[in-house]
Structure formats: C-alpha cells, structure tokens
Amino acid sequence: MEEILKKYKTTKLEGVNVWFKAAPVDAFPKDGGACVKYKDLQIAVFNFERLNTWYASQNLSPEKQEMVLSRGMIGDHNGIPMVACPLHKKTFSLETGENLNGDLEPIAIYPVKIENNIVYIGFSE
Amino acid sequence: MKTIVVIGNGMVGFKFCEKFVTKENLGNYKVIVFGEEPRPAYDRVHLSEFFENQNAKALELAPQSWYEENGIELITDTRITDIHRDKKTITSVNEKQYTYDYLVLATGSSAFVPPIKGVEKKGVFVYRTIEDLEDMLSYAAKLKVKNPNAKAAVLGGGLLGLEAGKAAMDMGLEPHIVEFAPKLMPRQLDSRSSQVLQLKLESIGLNIHLSKATNQILGDDGYITGMEFGEDDVLDVEMLIISAGIRPRDELGKTCNLEMGVRGGIVVNNKMQTSDPDIYAIGEVALYNQMIYGLVAPGYDMADVAANQILGQTETLMPDEIDMSTKLKLIGVDVASFGEPFMPASKGHSIIFENKTQHLYKRINVSLDGKSLLGGILVGDAADYNMLHQIYLNGMSIPEDPAQLILPASEGGTTFGDVTDLPDEAQICSCESVTKGQICNVIENGEATDVTGVVSYTKAGTGCGGCKPMVTDLTNATLKALGIEVKEGVCEHFDLSRQDLYKIIQVKGYTTFNEVLDNHGTGGHGCELCKPLVASLMASINADTANKEYAIQDSNDRFLANIQRNGTYSVVPRVPGGEITPDKLIALGQIAKKYDLYTKVTGGVRIDLFGATLNQLPLIWKELISHGFESGHAYGKSLRTVKTCVGSTWCRYGMDESVSFGIELENRYRGIRAPHKIKGGVSGCIRECAEARGKDFGLIAVEGGWNLYLGGNGGATPRHAELFAEQIDNETVIKYIDRYLMFYMRTAKPLQRTAAWQDRLEGGIEYLKEVIIEDKLGIAADLDEEMQSLVNKFECEWTQAVNDPEMMKRFNHFVNSEDEDDNLVFVPLREQKMPEPWK
Q1: CA angle at residue B71 from B47 to B314, to 5 degrees?
Q2: Is the pLDDT of residue B669 over 50?
Q3: Cβ A76–B839 below 8 Å, yes or no?
Q4: Which of B193, B248, B281, B366 is the most buried (most CB within 10 A)?
C-alpha cells in the first residue's frame, strides 16, 4: 500500500511537462469535485465556482488509502480552500496538500488550467 | 550521569517516567524501567474493557516507542529478585546486575487469595492482569461449549469484585457475586446506598449473595464445581474469580530490610523515601500515614513527588490528608463517594434522597451549623459529583437549605454552584492534577481559545475523563469573562445558530446555499459543517430531495447511499414496518447475487446490500425500482425505519395492528430531512417486541388505544423514550408525532438526536405536552400544516435520479472513463465477501 502513495507527487506549475486534457468544464459539479483518470493515476479535480478557481489533488485518502477524496465536500477553513474526506472528515488544504485537522501525510497537488471550456491537469511526466 | 532504576511498569511506575521526562531533558539521567508483565504499562482501571474488544493495545498507556523516544530503557517480562543496598545494585531473575543511584519501587500489589480449602482448583482465577483475563476467556469459552448456561462467581463484592462481575457477564456466564460483609462495596457505601446499588445490579442480571463466608471450594477431578458456605448451603459454579482485596508486592523491601508496616507495605515519608534515602516507594506498595492507597490518583501524586524529590525540587511533598473521593461507572451504574461518606451523628447531619424505583440514592453530610459540606454518597446518578466534590474540597458555602444540592429540579432542587465561584487552587482534573487557575491561565494568555486547546495544553480530562463537563463549563465561562464570545454559530462561516438559520431560510424563502451564504454568512465559501446543514434545512422547509443541489450534500446524500470502509456503498431499500412479500424478498436476493453484494439484515430490520461501486448504484436501483422498491434513506439524516412487532393480525397477545400502523407512520414520514436520523417503533402489546421505547417515537398498544413515548434512542448514550400520552387513538398519535417532529426540526442543534434535544429542553417532557397538546405557543396549526405539506410533497429521490440522465452523470467513478476504481480489493468472508482489512 505504501507503493501506491509514492505514485502521487505534488507538481508545481513550473514543473509541468504534460498538460493532460481531462474533460469539459460541465463534466464537473459546481462547487464540488470529480475524479479523472490519467495513466494509472486517479486525480480529484475540484471546481470552486464561487472563486472561479480549480484545484487538483490525488484521489487517494492518505489515512486509509482509499480512492475517495473527489467525493468529499469542499469549501474553506480560515480562507484556505480545502476538501473534507468523506470517510472521517479529515480536511486537506488544496493549496499545499497539508492535513488541516490532524497530522496525516500531505496529499499531492497538481496544477489545473481551463482553455476553451476544457479542464487540463498538469503533470511532470 | 546518574542512573534511576524503576522497578515496576504499572500505572504509577509509568506516571513516574512521564512526570520525570517532562521535568528533565534526561541529559543528566539514565532511566531503566523493569516490568514483570510481558507488555508495557496499561490502564488497569479500565481492565474490564478488555472483555468488550480483547484489544490489549487499546489499554496501553504509551507504546514501546514512547519509552525509546524519551530515552528510557524499558525491560519487560523481567522480575527483579534482589536489592543490594550496600553496593547499590539490583539483580534480575536472569541473574543480571544493574547499578543504581536512585531506586524507585513501584511494584504495586497482587490479588489477595484467601486461604480457603480447594482454592488451587482449575477454574479459579484472580482478576489483576491482562494475562489473567486471557486465561479466564479461554476457560470460559471451553465451559460454554460444554454447558451454555455455565455460572461464574466472584468472591468479593467490593469495587474490583463488581468489575469482575461485569467481566463474567461479558463472557456470557451467569454472574454471581459472593460477599462476606452484609452489603456491597462496604468500604465506600452505607447500607441504604448499598441496597439501592444491589437492586440496580440485580435488575440487570447479577445474582448477589451477601454475608457468605466460603468454607471450601468444591471440585471434581481437580476442577471447581461449587462453593460451600455452610452445611446445605452450596452455590454450584464452574468458575470462580477471586477479588477479595489486594496485598502490596513488598517482598523486595522485606529481603533488603527496609522498614515495613506491620501488615505489609514499605514505609515511606512525605517525600516518598523509604528508610533508605536513595530508595523511593510509590503506589500500592507504599505505606504512607499507615495506609495503602488503592486508588490511582494518590498513586499519581506519589509519582510526581518522587520525581521532584530526585530532581532536587525538595519542596514538593505528599499532603498529610489524601482525598479518597471517587466516582466511577460500575456496570453502567454511577457510584461516587467523597469526603467523609459515613459520618457519626455527633459531627453533623445527613440529608438523604432515595428513590428505589429509579435506583437512585443521594446522601450529603453537612456540618452541625449547616454551613459546610463534609462528604456524601451518590448511587445511580452522579451528575452532581464534580460540583459537590469541589464544594467539599474548597470549603465553599452551601445554600441555606442544603437539600437543594441533591433534590431533583422538579422537587425544588436548583442547580447550585458555578465553576467560576471556585478558588484558583481548586483541582478540576485530579488524574492530571490540573487546577482551575491553570485552565484559566492558558485561556487568559491566549494559548487556548477553546476546549480542545485547553485539553491539549493542560492535559485536563485526558485521564478518566470525568471532569470533561466541568472543563467545558470553565472554558466557556472564562472566555465569556474575557469578553470573547462563545460561538453558538454553526461554524466559521455563520455566526448564526441552526434555529436562526431555519427561521431565516423559511422567511426569506432561500433555495440555494450561495444565497444563504452571501446574505448571512461571514465570508468564505462554506465547509463540511455548514453545507450539509443548510441543505438539510432547505429540505426540512421545502421538502427538497438531496438531488436538488447535490454538491452541498453530505457525501452520503450526494450519492444517495452509505459510503463504506473502502469507498464502495451499501444499498438499503425501504421495507415499511419490516413487512415484505416473498416476491420482493426473492428480487432482493437475485439483485444481490447478480452484483455480488454482501447481504445482511440491518439493526432496523431491513436488508442491506454492501459493496456496490459508484457505477453500479444506479443500475442496482433501476432494478430495485422496477420491482416496486424505493429509497430507504438509510444514508440521510431522516426517518430510517419504523420497527414493528407482528401485532394483533397474527400474535395471540396483540392488542392492536402494530404492523399496519407502523407502515402508515413509516410512509408518512419517509424522506423528511431532520437534524439527525429518526427511528420509530410500534409494539402490539406491553411485551414490547419492537423496542419502541428505544426509539425517537414509540407506540405501545394498550387497552383503549396507544401509549406514545418520545425521545428515546440507542446509540452512544442510550435513553428510554418518555411517556407522553396514554390510550390515544391513531389520529391523535399522528397529530402529536407530526407536531413533535416539526418542533424538533425547527429548534434542535445540528446533528442532535431527539433524545439529547429533549434532555436539554427547559421544562422537558412537561413543556412538550404544553406545546404539543395544549398549544401554549400557539404554533400547533403551523406545525400541522408544515408537516402535512412535507408529507404531500414526498418523492423518491432514487426514482428521480435514475430517470434523469443529467443526475445519473454523478455516478461515474471517472469523468473521463467508464472504468471502475481499480484500487478495490475484496477478501472472502463466510461465503460472501468483505473489503480487505485496513492496514
């Protein structure tokens, strides 16, 4: 199981080599998330419509290694955009990946861009 | 570098280590700890919990790694056999020598086994260590194979004996308590409170034998078969647990000639030093003021004193008088005694409140001038203990009529005393020795801003947890005094309470989360607390289904199913009243088989199908709906089931048609969103097979109508529903439940069950009668109308979802692929399957 966690590494905008064309904007719920498949990775993509901002992270909850984060509720805590894991409501910053209400490992975060109403996720490879 | 050797790794030995490392960075000291048991120190006070889950790890005070991280060498499974005071060395059972500068004896005690003939027989146990418990469990398991009705006796009706009685009960044996004295808990309770406790324990199935001296243990082929008290006075038992007191483990003190007590124990002074100033003794091995203190709190104080003394903080001394007050839950029964529980009439007056029907007893002892509280006993309800204990400890003044301190509110009692009246030195948490001053301090200097912060800074409430309510009250009062508002708001995005939000949404007619947040929020974008709450309120007011704005729903509501351990879901169709045709039952079985779902009957008597993936959910539901099923709302904060017994349609005892009425009620309230889940029950007679009094609303058929009970639940804090109305007809039942549920939905806090809401409702059930029956608030017509409108607007949300292609989109694991989650692993389980266990 440890192996599966290692597959997910935070990618910074400057480290992006591949912009993966995920899906049209309207495939994602407003102010909610959905999951995108890229190679053998599961990426959770969140549409913060109120902010007009998008975020992406691993779909894997670092707590119990289940593929569930895209189904969590989103919002903010003290201004930090976050997702709450649907299993035990562990919250993670979507800016840094940090666990906001515990000391779990941070989740990996990926850049997102929207062009012509299409959602792209940035990967290093 | 000095070496400190601690002999004994029980609760007190561990506390010494903990106190020592927080005071000293250990650079100048080396600490070696010896434990005789195979595992690191564990919580012996809560030993009986081991029977519930058999998880020794859960009882651990700190894992092995804690000792390593703090530079402590822990050597378990090793007994120390000798102390050589002249050379300052000790020898272990495997003949190894260790040198010490300071020696701390924390060897504790062992169970006292009285010299009764036959006590060596197989099946006789003591109750002291996890190993003892494991031996008992395996013996009991074998017994039950031979005889499912096997009996176990406990010798000793004291505190530990009653705990052991619970253990016998948990092992599935018929429990008997045998006590030499004429009453239970003779050290802590007076005769009357002891009788109340006895009645209560008997009512939950314990058999109690008092004034019994055991002459011999009877046996057959070396195994125990009974206990003989006198001629023709025999109790047949197949197992015996001895819990007749403790003896200090003082043999090391004896052999190295430390000063000993006449009846055992190593004599210590108020620095916890023995007659050898380099050797300390703490806990149940130490004889202080000619007493062995068998409670954990004085043991912890001793550990603190010894740690301070060794580090040169010589002004920390053990007080002369040790508070032996104690509060505990014995087999679910509150028992507490404080100060002087028994008091001679020459010293003061006792005020006693006793109610045997409710198994309640409260006694307080008041000084002759009626001005101070000297002690007391509480059985059955110890909610007042913390305050009474503080009043006693701090010599606070008491009301002119001291009876008010213990009388129930309905009989003129008042809540007396406020945490803020306590002096700063008042000890709030006795396990961790945290004073009121310390708690106020961390709030006043800004280190903590809420209860969680206070607990993490001061450790208050992390021991037995009994002081938690007081810590909460004190924290809130201190915050208020500082002018910091104690937030009633639901979360950081709303300063409003649930009730306020309810009114606002109702009056303004909002239909989206963003409208509510933009107009009444404090900024930000909402969170996992306020989103589902607003969703639930809009549903309670407008009868919206969870499909309407699915991204603000709690994750289960969003996918109309209960998420399980591995991210798959369970499916529960509604089976109103538990009545189901064979055809529907077959359909359920066929669908479960087709999708390979784990199948189980739920606690609410319907059928749960587990292991459906997100993609499968709508396919399964389409099939269920085609067979006439609808959503069971098992995932929602809404009506779950109305459980029924079969009633007069079949049962020869039935007084009325409980199934028919249960179905009617379940169909009436299905789908309605509430602050928390709601369950109902309808029993056809007073035998109560539907367990209606454990439900939010429950009905029992009696001569001339239904008795209606309100506000019960199972859950973490079980509560029986209270009788609200008697012998009423079907129409009246529906009217009252309509109003009750609507009033609850309007006024409860988020995620508050009816039981907790009713408990905190000022005036309780009597007030509810005024509102619901007499319409004191003049809102009954509104409540009726609101409920009827919700009932009329009901729509099955699964039927909505499967008929709308747009809604169906949400049930794909990926937005860009038809694939399923490839991370799912199932393992076989009794001819079905389950998710792979969590690592």
Answers
A1: 85
A2: yes
A3: no
A4: B281
